[in-house]
Amino acid sequence: ERLQQGKRIDLILSDVAMPNMNGYELLKRLRSDSATMATPFILLSAHAGEEANVEGLDLGADDYLVKPFSARELIARVRSTIRLSDLRHELNREQRHALEMKQLIYSISVRIRGGLSLPQILVTASRELFKIIRCNAIRIFRFRRVDQKIGRHWGLEATETSISNSEHDTLGDVQHIPNCYHPDFGANSVMSVALIHNQKIWGYLLASRDEDIVDWSQSEKLLFEQTGNQISLAIAHASLWELKKSQQVEIETAHAASEAKSQILANTSHELRTPIGAIVGALSALEDTGYNLTGEQRDMVKIIQITSDVALS
Questions:
Q1: What 3-state DSSP class applies to 205?
Q2: Is 101 exposed, middle or buried (CB count within 10 Å of its CB: 0-12, 13-18, 19+)?
Q3: pLDDT for position 97
Q4: C-alpha distance across the termini of the chain, in Å
Q5: What is the spatial distance between Cα 234 and Cα 240, in angstroms, rounded to a whole number?
Q6: Where are the 4-aspartylphosphate modifications (predicted)?
């Protein structure tokens, strides 16, 4: 009945010998259904021996108990099976969480290499982090200066609140403030990591939640720190890209100025050639006519000719 209602079952205790469906058939059906394949299952049987025990365990039973048994033994087996099942669920959850963490870090690094703009990377990082970490808000704040109020922010949040100012200029790896209420966040617990660029604090990555559980798990802290590192890399990448574009603009500007200078010089040279050519012709005619020139005048003519030749060369 609980299975039909979709309710969670802590454990199924079944006898092998049942009228309509024996315990083995029930176990097979439950293990073939994704909704019940991980439900703890204990088989009870009057058949002792290794073969019967192995058969039940091979079909997926968590334990096999042979009659007769005491109530204390049955209770101990049930508790042990449920405890082991809870541990398996927790291990599977941690494994899924670890995989999600790796995928998030990889996703951010791919976006950095893909050349996405910094605002796009920040929004994507906060959105993906919000899906994994249990919180009511993820925010990324950027300082105008370390000693100024916090500037613009990116992220996903449950309300339209934001930090008004900050007196912090240094921060360790990952800090969280449990069991406290922050009026700007409306949260009972805040976790933050500094975003570093050029050995200075560029801003902060913050998560907050107002649930009864205010402690952050080690995996959440690790993911938060790794995400902060990736965001810091994205900030550095964006800064280098902007510097590269700025340098390219300077190079193109200098090249354009050089071409303009060359063109001006070429035009000036062309404009000077015609009058200088006329002067050179006049000097040659002067020498050819045989006018009686003084020594000083002849020296002056030679100087003018040499200067004209240099200008025309």
A1: strand
A2: buried
A3: 78
A4: 107
A5: 10
A6: 15
